[in-house]
Amino acid sequence: MAHFEKANSLSEWLDQRLAINKLNKVLMTEYWIPKNINFLWAMGVILATTFTILLVSGIFLLMYYKPDSKLAFDSVNYTIMQEVWFGWLWRHMHGVAASVVFLVIYIHMFTGIYYGSYKKGREMIWISGMLLFVTFSAEAFSGYMLPWGQMSYWAAQVITNLFGGIPFIGDDLVVWIRGNFYVSDPTLTRFFMLHVLLLPLIIMALIGFHFYTLRIPHVNNQEGEEIDFDAEAEKYKAGKKAESKVIPFWPVFLSKDLFVLGIFLIFYFYLVFYHYEFAMDPINFDPANPMKTPPHIYPEWYFLWSYEVLRGFFFDIGPFAAMNIGLTAFGIANVIFFFLPWLDRSPVVAPAYRRKAFNIWFWILVIDMIVLTIWGKLPPTGANAWVGFFASITFLIELLIALPIITKSEAKRAGGAV
Amino acid sequence: MADQKRRDFLGMLFGGFAAAGGAAALYAMKRTWDPLPSVMAAGFTTVDLSPMKPGEFRTAVWRGKPIFILKKDHTDLKKSDKTDVKVGEGDYLVRIGLCTHLGCIPAWQPNKKIFKCACHGGEYDPTGKNIFGPPPRPLDIPPFKIEGTKLVLGEEGPEYKKLVGKA
Predict the structure, then answer these.
(1) Which residue among A1, A77, A247, B54 is least enclosed by CB atoms within 10 Å?
(2) How many angstroms separate the CA of residue A335 from the nearest CA in chain B?
């Protein structure tokens, strides 16, 4: 048995047993953040907050939602929306947050790409972030199925069918995933389980891991400057706060972060109260009907770019069937960002505006992904099909060919200097 | 030395037990995700084709999937021995009504005489052949058996085997 003295206060009592003072230092007051950052560095805290909003609103929806293909639609559209006090609020908060969280994720990702925050020791930050992106995507997809409207149903039908493209086991795999020959009650109940339990558990574990990956390399800064965090922290602790290049996470960094968060929340609640309809597709207010495909189906806006890559290849090329090219391109699009730290062959960590060719590459990628997103929602006919085709090709060339070439020549020019 | 060997043996024994337990658990989890026996057993649909008129199109349901049935006539909808099902006097196109691309339901457009899939723009002709867009193959043929003027979906009759052999 360890030795304990009588404590003089509650905090001392807790400190003896849980080392809360040490914990507070490690996680908050002596966790160092560079000073030279801007509002884009606040996205992490915004995402953590949005996830919390999703969790809390989800808990309240879970109290009335019924995961049964006969009851689901009414439990959402009648019980929650019309009977439950403030049920509409939880639903709109949940739906809008699910959409907005992807907007912030994309900003967060592209900030990382712009400032080169995924390399030279920061690879694990990037990879754990990409794992979060993938699990958030699965979470969004499984959640979209739950209201059991026409869009829910046909999104489930199309996405589960994608697994049919896997050689040999594809057809059996689709039936296995669905638990039936077609999307039906067993499909709904298993995706309900994934949405409310397994995937949130994985996401929470990954969020913890993502924070931990920042520990050793530390967060990047606006200039990509290499900082001796121990030396700068000593300066700060010695009272030379103006001279030091770092600030503590709490209270200095978070106080500014909370300001950005405040602005975000005003925007978010504006959407919740006045523009929730953008996250509520009208087609999904028709109950699921396995015998009738809506005339035009499309995913939520945050999946449109990869959806457009999937359908961008609408004609056979040589011996390759259009569908298989599309599926392959879609598969590549979904995993390619994981490999970004190795597709970028340059050791230079700097904002894109100081890396000429990379800067052009970056903005072409941003524009291309916006084009893919816009055309992903248009019917794939005539000229639209060709825009989709060229935008998909551009996406693949950008990441698989242009990036390694550009960064390799940059590495040569940088020589031994970096 | 003898002690170390004993420890290695215990380690392997422990690992072996854990691996067997893990494999058993994975098998149980996989089986739990499998479609239930009631789902697998359900699924024979009988359709009487005698009331259909030439040129008429209708949709039957088999295992939750739409089944397209199109009765050929003598004008635009030519008969095709290779792709049609002969029931009594009539020639019919019988296909699973799910786009072979990603499983949306194509719509029959009687004026253009095509099946058009709204999801990704795929098109099929009245023989079920894919003629435009991403579908990788013609519409699939459901297993069927002919009983008089009736079509029994879910059973593999000789006509089905002949048709699949030709297609």
Answers:
(1) A1
(2) 21
Asked if residues B144 and B138 have their Cβ atoms less than 8 Å apart, the reply is no
Give the right CATH number for B45-166 from 3.30.465.10, 1.10.3210.10, 2.102.10.10, 3.30.450.150: 2.102.10.10
User: Which pLDDT does position A379 carry in this prediction?
Assistant: 80
The reply to whether residue A158 touches residue B121, judged by beta carbons under 8 angstroms, is: no
Confidence of residue B1 (pLDDT cuts 50, 70, 90): low
Asked if A297's CB is within 8 angstroms of B104's CB, the reply is yes
**Closest approach of A176 to chain B, Cα-based (Å):** 5
Question: pLDDT: is A76 or B90 the higher one?
Answer: A76
- For B121, which of A154, A294, A314 is closest by C-beta distance? A314
| High-pLDDT (> 90) share of chain A, % | 85
- Interface predicted TM-score (ipTM) of this complex, two decimals: 0.79
pLDDT mean over A244-260: 95
Q: With 50 as the cut, is the pLDDT of residue A418 above it?
A: no
SS3 of A23-83: the string is HHHHHHHCCEEECCCCHHHHHHHHHHHHHHHHHHHHHHHHCCCCCCCCCHHHHHHHHHHHH
Angle between helix A123-145 and helix A87-114 axes, rounded to 10 deg: 150
The pLDDT confidence band at residue B166, using thresholds 50, 70 and 90, is low
For B135, nearest residue in chain A (alpha carbons): A323
CATH superfamily of domain region A25-291: Cytochrome Bc1 Complex; Chain C (1.20.810.10)
